[in-house]
Amino acid sequence: MRNATLKQMRALAAIVETGTVTAAAKKLNVTPPAVTMQVQQLEEHLGLPLLDRAGERFQPSAAGREVLAAVARIEQAMADCGAALDGMKGLKSGHVSVGLVSTAKYFVPNALGAFARLHPGIDIALVVGNREEMIAALRGDSIDLAIMGRPPLDIEVDKSPIGEHPHLIIAPAGHPLLGRRIKASALANASFLSREPGSGTRGLMERFFQEAGIEPRIAMEIGSNETIKQAVMAGMGLAFISAHTIAAEVADGRLAMLDVEGLPEVRQWFVVKRSAKRLTPPATALTEFLARRGPEFLPQLSPPSHATAKQSV
Hints:
alpha/beta, seven-stranded mixed beta sheet, three-stranded parallel beta sheet, 14 strands, about 40% helix, elongated
């Protein structure tokens, strides 16, 4: 690959993206023979076919897919370099891609809005998913930063704390266990509405009950915190959930917090990057902003009261 040129690799990528030489030439603003020549020269240099024809369109061969993966990495490196050079002129422009675990969407948009007002020339792209999806995005460098409660252990990352992230158990208003401090064992027969396996909240719930010697009864798996809240309000079960997702519903009396021994389970929010990834100045500035000012955007929630009855059940 030492003598392969970026022009040759871009010609290959354009053919695969568009499906035809003619469309690739139009995309690159060159003639079709020029595109064909670039790909032929690359194939001769590598000694392998890079394209297969499927009907009227071209698809990459196995060797072609390897070259395309290299092209993607090169284009990303060049984009990062361009952003870094722009950053040397000041934080007047640039791009940051941020991944959020779904629970973080209750406070991160407000924080990003404040950052954007300080740096209106910086574009921010958001990706929302569960913890496993965000780890995969970090590993594949499809995002610059991830905001999550539990950084991955299987890849090397740098993490900066943002603030506390409490978890607790919610119930519908009027639940018979409200107003009392209870042991986790009192919930052994309760039905729980839970996030899907792979989510950070599900893993934290399982560890909490495991330490209490209880296997919670999962009545339903639901991939959305909003749907879980609606189902709890409807009396379909209890839920172990981030306190940052329920502030509005608790404030207006639609949901209530159970006072369970050992809860809230307080973790931390982190902004995370892959250690080997070089951040652009805009991404570095956003990381520092979240670490410095992140706590002011976290929802505030008072702990459950058990003034009416002090005993544990």
